[in-house]
Amino acid sequence: MEFHHISVLLDETVNGLVTDPAGTYVDCTLGGGGHSHRIAELLQSEGRIIGIDQDADAVEAAAERLKDVRCRVDIVHDNFRHLERILREQEAVQLDGVLFDLGVSSHQLDVAERGFSYMQDAPLDMRMDPDASLSAYDVVNTYEEQELFRIFKEYGEERWAKRIAEFIAAARGTRPIRTTGELVDIVCRAVPKKVRRAAGGHPAKRVFQAIRIEVNDELGILEKSFRTAVAHLKPGGRIAIITFHSLEDRIAKQTLKELSKGCVCPPEIPVCVCHHEAELRLLGRPLRADAEELSRNTRAKSAKLRIAEKLPRKEELTC
Ligand SMILES: C[S@@+](CC[C@H](N)C(=O)[O-])C[C@H]1O[C@@H](n2cnc3c(N)ncnc32)[C@H](O)[C@@H]1O
User: Fold this and answer.
1) Helix (H), strand (E) at residue 281
2) Is residue 256 a contact partner of residue 241, using CB atoms and an 8 Å limit?
3) Less CB within 10 Å around the terminal CB: N or C of the chain?
4) What gap in Å lies between CA 306 and CA 286, rounded to an integer?
5) Residue 260: closest CA among 317, 316, 306, 221
6) Which residues' Cβ are closer than 6 Å to ligand 1?
7) Ligand 1 centroid, distance to 188 Cα (angstroms)
8) Where are the domains of the chain?
9) For ligand 1, what atom is nearest to the CA of residue 32?
């Protein structure tokens, strides 16, 4: 199946990220290579892109997409949670820009067998890396009811989390829940009809998001990965993060905010004793897709782009 994905906030991201046409840029979520291709258009032959994705389909599609660009391209099939090691292996210690375009690609949602979509019946899977050991089947069939409740509540912000977890536990008591279709039926039975109609959107949307986050440990790896990326930026280098739901956006916002804090002394201390330095400067407010983009790509509706720039250390400024 052809790899289909429309890159969100493409110009805003790439124009905000690329400052040096001969620089080194890391795309931590390569997908179909859409953002990387646009970055490559701005780079000279001395420039370099390191593209990372944990999904072999994405790696293959991006390699094809990027094969004729003029800059150097290195593609790494791995999880960006290993960014520190990947950079060491790539001998790329000092970076000009790092991009995170989080979540799943449209391709992953479109291929029914990947089991990400509540719109298509398929085996319960949802692994971005098909070699990973934990799948949606394991979560749905082996997690304690209480644990399912927690996941639906925390990762799905699902109001009916308790009832849905109860219905799942009851259903799997008879036989395992094998497919996305079976799971959708159970969720639909658990959420009262009146609420389903009033809420709008698909009743299984939040449950699927929650299970996907759990299967791929999508939130647990973010803060450390962002900090690693920032630690490797040159002064003036930039980090761009695109998020698609409030949970990952909160982590992006808080991490960037903390890294852009200077003195952290308590307010009652008249002179700074902590000597804490801000590492980043936030560049403007988060950006959202405009009406034109939304008319082409509904997936951009929830997207938020945050960009920040690495500051020089104080001693670098004075010498
Ligand atoms: C939204 S898509 C990126 C699309 C890409 N920017 C483009 O324009 O074509 C997100 C991609 O990131 C990958 N991904 C998500 N989390 C990852 C992780 N922790 N490590 C590596 N890749 C990840 C997914 O497999 C998916 O291909």
Assistant:
1) strand 280-282
2) yes
3) C
4) 5
5) 306
6) 5, 7, 29, 31-35, 52-55, 58, 79-81, 101, 103-105, 128, 221
7) 30
8) 10-103+219-318, 111-215
9) 9
CB contact at 8 A, 102 and 110: no
Residue 198, pLDDT score: 58
Q: Label residue 271 left, alpha or beta by phi (over 0 means left) and psi (-120 to 50 means alpha).
A: beta
Q: Could you tell me the two tokens for 142? A: 């082996």
Hey, what are 147's tokens? Answer: 């644990």
User: Which residues is 240 bridged to in the sheet?
Assistant: 99, 307
Q: Which residue has the tokens 């330095």?
A: 277
Angstrom distance (rounded) from CA 41 to CA 39: 5
Confidence (pLDDT) at 319: 53
State which ligand 1 atom lies nearest to the alpha carbon of 78.
21
- pTM, two decimals, is 0.93
For residue range 25-84, list pLDDT tens digits in order.
999 999 999 999 999 999 999 999 999 999 999 999 999 999 999 999 999 999 999 999
- Please report which residue ranges of 90-221 form alpha helices under DSSP H: 106-110, 136-142, 145-156, 161-174, 180-190, 193-199, 205-215
Fold of 10-103+219-318: Rossmann fold (3.40.50)
Query: Could you say which residues of the chain have pLDDT below 50?
Result: none
Query: What separation in Å is there between the alpha carbon of 58 and the centre of ligand 1?
Result: 8
pLDDT of residue 289: 97
Residue 278 backbone zone (phi > 0: left; psi -120 to 50: alpha; other: beta): beta
What is the reported pLDDT for 214? Answer: 97
Contact between 96 and 234 (Cβ < 8 Å): yes
Is 1.10.150.170 the CATH number for 111-215?
A: yes
Work out the angle between the directed axes of helices 56-65 and 34-42 (0-180°, nearest 10): 30
Take atom 14 of ligand 1 and give the residue whose Cα is closest.
Answer: 29
pLDDT at position 5 is: 83
pLDDT for 151: 97
